[in-house]
Write a structure and sequence with these properties.
The longest helix has 17 residues. The protein has a seven-stranded parallel beta sheet, with helices on both faces. The protein has a seven-stranded mixed beta sheet with strand order 10-11-12-7-13-14-16. It contains 16 helices and 16 strands. It is globular and about 55 Å long. By secondary structure, it is an alpha/beta fold. It has two domains: about 160 residues, NAD(P)-binding Rossmann-like Domain (Rossmann fold, 3-Layer(aba) Sandwich); about 170 residues, 2-Layer Sandwich (Dihydrodipicolinate Reductase, domain 2). A hairpin with a 4-residue loop joins strand 10 and strand 11. Helix 4 crosses helix 5 and helix 8 packs parallel to helix 10.
């Protein structure tokens, strides 16, 4: 650990510090002797956490821009862990630009990437980096996309897919519940295009035999376009066939699923479960990613990437990127992990491996 590490990391503020994934990041920071600032809306949730860990704290909501700016005083980097990020990202990012603070988060929501992408010129002028998606969404898949582009510079289409082994956290499940009836996105000719739920299905082999997958509005539909310039992008997720069939029904039951009554029922069910996978489950968990590029001549290249459990990986990559930004390894404007740190960045983390075909 470098001599200035302890002081430097006091400039990193973790917003939404009482969440499941934030807790993993805090534990990692503490194991390195770092002292990030813990922050969130509620003193009742943040104060006990800060006291338990002996860390500095701040509490502020996101409705008043002046209050957010005040909460960011003497901060170098904000790592936003408060989802759904459609409710938190833009307000925090705008305050960060006003305050000269780099903004990071762990979102996977296409709308968030697109909204922050639109602020890129403003962020460049402010000398601030905006990098949403510093966790499993989208570090490994973004690096895989950049690697495939490197292998085939004239690629015109990119297909990405992933298989996550493990249970979702409350935050992930809540975001999924709020968005499952909305359909999805793909990119066509460089433009974002709305598509119905389960627009396509496909059988894919992540290395252990074929599994069923379906299109999902994963963040790479936005970020891979920035990282690679490939105009046509689709992302698939492995799902059991009954769940794919149920998701397809959302085309006809979307209005019902969006109702306050059904949303309340689903979220009460989510809240009744553990906050997320425990340490043993994270240790057993894994993720497998697959990517394919195609050029105008119809030639294809495929690569696979294996990583640890998505939540464990999120803690590692998000904290690492926060430290790098605090050290000055940030690039102003909207950025993706591979643009700033390279296509091989993901391979620097234990338990990751990549193979080309």
């Amino acid at each position: 650990m470098c001599p200035n590490m302890h002081t430097m990391n006091q400039d990193i503020l973790i917003y939404g510090a009482n969440g499941y994934t934030a807790d993993l990041i805090i534990e990692l920071a503490l194991s390195e002797g770092a002292k990030p600032i813990l922050a969130g809306r509620s003193p009742d949730k943040i104060a006990p956490l800060a006291k338990r860990h002996g860390l500095p704290m701040r509490t502020f909501g996101l409705d008043d821009p002046a209050q957010i700016v005040a909460g960011l005083a003497h901060v170098g980097v904000v790592l936003n862990c408060a989802g759904p990020f459609t409710r938190t990202a833009k307000a925090l990012a705008q305050a960060c630009m006003q305050s000269g603070v780099h903004y990071l988060d762990i979102t996977g929501e296409v709308e968030v990437f697109e909204s922050l992408m639109a602020l890129s010129a403003q962020a460049q002028t402010a000398g601030v980096m905006l990098m949403p998606g510093t966790g499993f969404d989208v570090v490994p898949s973004d690096c895989l996309a950049a690697h495939l582009k490197r292998r085939m510079p004239n690629a015109t289409s990119l297909t990405l897919a992933f298989q996550a082994i493990g249970q979702p956290s409350h935050g992930t499940a809540t975001t999924m519940a709020e968005n499952m009836h909305k359909g999805g996105f793909v990119r066509r000719g460089g433009e974002l295009q709305s598509v119905p739920p389960v627009w396509k299905t496909r059988s894919m082999d992540f290395g252990q035999g074929p599994v069923d997958t379906m299109t999902v509005p994963w963040g790479d539909v936005a970020t891979a376009w920035v990282s690679t310039g490939i105009p046509d992008i689709e992302v698939f997720m492995a799902m059991p066939k009954p769940m794919i069939m149920g998701a397809k029904l959302m085309r006809y039951t979307g209005g019902l699923m969006a109702s306050d009554w059904v949303q309340g029922l689903i979220k009460r069910g989510i809240d009744s479960r553990p906050a997320g996978p425990n340490a043993a489950q994270r240790e057993r968990g894994a993720a497998h990613l697959w990517g394919e590029v195609r050029n105008a001549a119809g030639q294809t290249l495929t690569s696979r990437l294996d990583t640890p459990d998505g939540y464990a990986l999120t803690a590692l990559t998000a904290w690492d990127i926060a430290k790098r930004a605090a050290r000055g390894q940030a690039r102003p404007g909207f950025q993706t992990p591979s643009l700033v740190f390279g296509a091989d960045y993901i391979l620097g983390f234990a338990g990751t491996s990549r193979r080309d075909e």
